[in-house]
Design goal:
single chain; about 90 residues; mainly alpha; 2 domains
Length: about 90
């Protein structure tokens, strides 16, 4: 009987902790949902490389000067990210 009482109390304590955790994790739900959407977009891009290629060709044909300018910007951002990432990995 005592074991059953302890078991019930433990189950109630676990349920209370789950409710508290759920209330604290609420703000994270929207942020994680946004990240899930972004990752789904990346997955779609990986699954449809032809769509990416066609888009790039259309942009280059439509406005080569603008395409070159954005290519330089993206390359700069990518190199900056690589540098930051390598610095962070080296700091470990």
């Amino acid at each position: 009987m005592e074991l059953a009482m302890r078991h019930g109390a433990l189950r109630e304590r676990i349920a209370t902790q789950r409710r508290e955790f759920a209330s604290h994790a609420g703000p994270l739900k929207s942020a994680l949902g946004t990240a899930d959407v972004a990752l789904a977009g990346v997955d779609w891009l990986k699954a449809h490389p032809a769509a990416v290629g066609v888009t790039v060709v259309v942009i280059v044909v439509a406005s080569p000067k603008r395409a070159w300018r954005w290519t330089r910007r993206v390359f700069f951002i990518w190199r900056s990210w690589q540098s930051v990432r390598n610095s962070l990995l080296a700091a470990r």
